[in-house]
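Aggregate trends can hide what the representation actually does to any particular protein. The sequence in question and its structure tokens are set out directly beneath this paragraph.
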Amino acid sequence: MSTPSEKYAVFRSDQEHPAVKEFRELYDFRLDDFQLRACAALEDGHQVLVAAPTGSGKTLVGEFAVHLALQRGQKCFYTTPIKALSNQKYSDLVRRYGSDNVGLLTGDNSINSEAPIVVMTTEVLRNMLYAASQTLLGLSYVVMDEVHYLADRARGAVWEEVIIHLPDSVAVVSLSATVSNAEEFGDWLETVRGNTVVVLEEKRPVPLFQHVMVGKRLHDLFAGEAPTARAGQAQYGPQSRSGNPAKANQPGSTDLKDLVNPQLVRIARDDNRIFRDDSRKPRRRRDLPKQRPPKSHFTPYRSDVVEELDAGALLPAIYFIFSRKGCEDAMLQCLRSGLRLTKPSEQAEIKRVLAERMVDLPDEDLGVLGYHDFAEALSRGIAAHHAGMLAAFKEVVEELFARGLIKVVFATETLALGINMPARTVVLEKLSKWNGEAHVDITPGEYTQLTGRAGRRGIDVEGHAVVLWQPGFDPRAVAGLASTRTYPLRSSFSPSYNMAVNLVRQVGRSRARDMLELSFAQFQSDQAVVGLARQVQRNTEALEGYKESINCHLGDFLEYAALRRRIGDRESSGSKRRKLDRRVEAQESLEKLRIGDIIRIPAGRSAGWALVLDPGVRSEREGPRPTVLTLDRQVRKLSMIDFPTPVDAISSLRVPKKFNARNPQQRRELAHVLRGRTDMLGEEGPPSSRSRNGDVVTHADDPELQQMRAELRAHPCHGCSDREDHARWAERYFRLDRENRDVQRKIEQRTNTIARQFDRVCQVLDALHYLEGDKTTEAGDRLSRIYTELDLVAAECLRVGVFDDLDVPELAACLAALVYESRSKDEPTSPRLPRGEVRPALEQMGLIWRELSALERDMRVDFLRPMDLGFCWAAFRWASGASLAEVLYESDLAAGDFVRWVKQLIDLTEQVADAAGPTPLRKTARAVTEQIRRGVIAYASVVDEPDS
């Protein structure tokens, strides 16, 4: 910054924004332009939305809000989507501002909650808003880190609730990953919160190079420079208004897929030619491919990948494997291979940190937690990181990786969601993952989120993304993933029962309805309506033009054309009705058949005489399916297709009791007897067996149809010489008019969708007497304190006293059914359950759920997922005092999963205790909390305060 004009610009900026100048001087590096712009807007009194790539430093803007609050003697809440990120941010802020100035509020911890700066999960802030907590007094700033979480199906609504319900006096700082509709999101924030400045940053802080590893060799994905490696340019090249890359066929642009490394294209082509999938798997040796792929074309072992990265100075690395078991297996494979990535001094420091962080972990739990393999892998610079691990283990991995002591982490995609763990290299083992229902390809947005971890700002000159070669690999598809920015933010907002009672209690039903119409979901729906409204306008103009072409000098041709359409519709519906009547008649005739009846099959391959061996069992979908013996000795199972007309039994023949349809001799003898009987009946049979076409009602028998035809002939336009030309235009008119009405219906359906859904939720609550007009009943007040997904089931159980007579372990088991949700549909449908009062209580809970589900169907809402009993036994045993080893062995749960579900159970028991009021149930619920918050659970809730 040497030119006089640049120096003067900095001087003017410092004069106008002294707080930004003071904040900038706290850092020993130069702030980026987007950070300075966002901070300046915040100092000027605006709210801000910052959308920037992972690792670009957008959280610095949130920390400026903290700085402003402290400087001005105000409060700032820093919200995050997950507890681990809250703990991490709390430690960061304590190191900078001291423990007296910073507090923490999560489901597990409450530290210095009245401090001027409080870090919390977003759900905690939502609950404080509904409870009108005194802690909100003096609040001036709220930082919403990872605000793009509002697209999360399960939890996204919480972000919108907070943004909508925060007082107008609070400035919101929204920090988001790069999304392709950031402008739209900013427009919504402007609508809801007022003056909002949108700051977009497309540039990666560190250039990212894309590679593919084939065998043990690393190939560049692109022949030239990767789009993500262009220093000083937008991460994805030129952007359209929507945020997508500019079209390849625009002047001066190049199709990115044409830039793929030709060597990779050749490898993929050769392998596809050898292993071409023609949907037939080889069954014999001679069917196997004559050629074999070159020895260098294979998917490398995980340990080999790590060794190659180490040899190429590409560590530390995050190695993404979309499977918890895969992460654990990879760590053990590296251990067995003898891989060691750390120096003796690093090993000593790792062991010191591990001993310090694990000192409070019960010794008897170490074995069942897999601690010894975990510690050995850490000492070698290798780790796994996934949701099934104990939180304490994950935190140690995060700390050691951030310090550069861990060289490779095998992780699931959850690592990419929020935790600050940048690396030099990111490895993707596969480009598909299991989403709970099927294996699906990852999206460009997910690819960007995962590879965004590569390249440590201030440490690495460049970052690297490595995709492993797999059979059927398409390098052009990977190039598309690597060069496309299509990660739109889509709202998942919908009003819940808890939300409804809280809003009605606070502001009344009408005001609550208006507030919900401010949601991002409704905003996006209304934006779509704008396009539909334009389509209606264009259609209406076209219809006017059609009218001019239809104009007839003899009369109203539209009236005449409408009469023609009614006649056509009447004829068509009459034909369909007659066809249906004939099918019903045919089905009824088949139902009357008995064994031994001789019939004449009217149609199909088996048309002709036949003997009924079995009338068939009627099914609602297919109708009767009789089994018959034909004259040519064939046994056939017939269907309704063979009977376009009804059929009668012409005669009968005794079928021997021991007749075996599979015996050719018996078939031959019975068919011979049948032929003799039918020869006497003749070729066509008696009149009753023939087709009943004479019974068909024709159009001539429809008096209303005849009346319409007479009106058509009498209409003035019937004699127009241009009648058929007008008719063609009229047909286009009617077709477009029908399409226009469909679009208008879509507009009606999309307008006020959230408000209509809120009305239906309130109808459910009215029917159950949780609401009375604009007030909540005593039951409604209880519901307002319960935030679980099955909130209404829990509230109904409280109202009817399902939990009243349960002891501590029994209450834990029953409440577990309201929080647990299995990861796989393959888990047993009849899990083990405790004896005693638990089973009757669960049966009563199931009855309540079924009654509520039926009510939801009547009101056209669907919020209550089925209860899951898969955690009841584990919760019961843990609340009964069983050891961790016993519970994990009996339940087959991962330690991290067990801890997470127990924590959620603790949250619900505390809510139930709060909602129960001064009753014995409150005492029991609090005893559940005390009993299950022990051992590894208690340890998992501890947050170490860093030295300030």
Summary: DSSP finds 34 helices and 24 strands in the chain. The radius of gyration is 36 Å.
